[in-house]
Amino acid sequence: MLVNLQAKLLGAALCSIIAIFATIVATRYQAPVMLFALLLGLSAHAFYRHKKIQHGVNYCSRELLRLCVGMLGVRIAFADIVSLGITPPLIVMVSMALTMIFGVLFSRALALPKTFGVLSGGAVAVCGVSAAAAISTVLPKDKAQEKYFALTVIGITTFSTLSMIFYPILAGYLGFSDQLAGVFIGGAIHDVAQVVGAGYTISPEAGDVATYIKLLRVALLMPIVMMVFIAFKERDSKMEAGVSAFIPGFLILFFVLAFLKNIGVLPIWLIEIIRGLSSSLLVVAIAAIGVKTSLKQVLSVGWKPVLLMGSETVFLASLIVGGILFFY
Question: Which of 89, 110, 67 shows the shortest CA–CA distance to 281?
């Protein structure tokens, strides 16, 4: 048992060091920290060959990842979402559902695994890397899963960054008001950081609306993960008895934290601690996934996954724009 603990500590220490370096580099160059964590992790794949390292890396890439996703519940503010009214949320929710369906269907058309269509479609539709991380924890275990997850992180981060640059320009070209621009930005860009960056480059009002819309998408993460879990649940696998046989523990943690925060039970200082801890540990988990994954395997997938993620990105943006033009 002591040897096993030592192995976990060694692997966790490696992932933590990578996460620290990724944070420093990302802060220095104002770039997505998750992307740097994954890339630095990929460069350290050689360490994964050592069995003393593997246990800790595996722990960080799965158990720690699930814990981080559960702690995301403190980010949800139901009052802000309700204040938007019914039409913008409807546009966003329908667009999210159609994007996930499109991802599954187009992945099959490209002869890619159905699970990758769910993973990439969910990442585009919901909230980028965080959604990919959450969905990956409930997909069936597969040897290629880490490879496709790594590719999803790289692709989604790249497309999200490009969206942050070009979507404000597109909103201006289409003549959207600040509020409608916020709906478009919040509904179409993948990651939270890019949504905030793009929204507030237009105006404070656009930034506020974009943030609220993005929170709506984040709030829908766990129901979507729950549906994926039910759809892909391995019926012959050994599962714990009780509620956890139907609802993974990290989903329960997410809903409990979201509920406690929104009824005002959790103090602000505790919310900030949990929020900061989840963000920091998520970087460690993403670094672990990078360490587990061979860059050679990631590059071997070819052009089809890139086409899939790019098409999903354009599809979601087109639906949001179409909904805005139709209703407003």
Answer: 67
Task: Please check whether residue 299 is in contact with residue 167, taking contact to mean a CB–CB distance below 8 angstroms.
Answer: no
- The span from the CA of 60 to the CA of 139, in Å, is 17
Rounded distance between C-alpha atoms, residue 60 and residue 71, angstroms: 15
Of how many residues is the chain composed?
Answer: 328
pLDDT single digits (tens) 147-203: 788 888 888 878 887 888 889 989 999 999 988 999 999 999 987 767 877 888 788
Tokens found for residue 5: 């603990």
Structural domain count, the chain: 1
Tell me the per-residue pLDDT of 279-288, one tens digit each, with 9 for 90 and over. 888 889 888 8
> Distance of CA 110 to CAs 46, 158, 318, Å?
32, 21, 21
- The torsion angle over the Cα atoms of residues 243, 104, 156 and 282, rounded to 10 degrees, is 10
Cα gap 126→131, rounded to integer Å: 6
Contact present, 44 and 291 (Cβ < 8 Å): yes
What angle is formed at CA 175 by the lines to CA 318 and CA 328, rounded to 5 degrees? Answer: 65
Gap between the Cα atoms of 29 and 218, Å rounded: 26
Locate 2 and state its tokens: 């002591």
Residue 287 CA to residue 274 CA, distance in Å, equals 20
Question: Residue 265 belongs to what domain range?
Answer: 2-327
Q: Hey, what are 156's tokens?
A: 């989604």
pTM of the predicted model as reported, rounded to 2 decimal places: 0.73
The burial class, CB within 10 Å (0-12 / 13-18 / 19+), for 240 is exposed
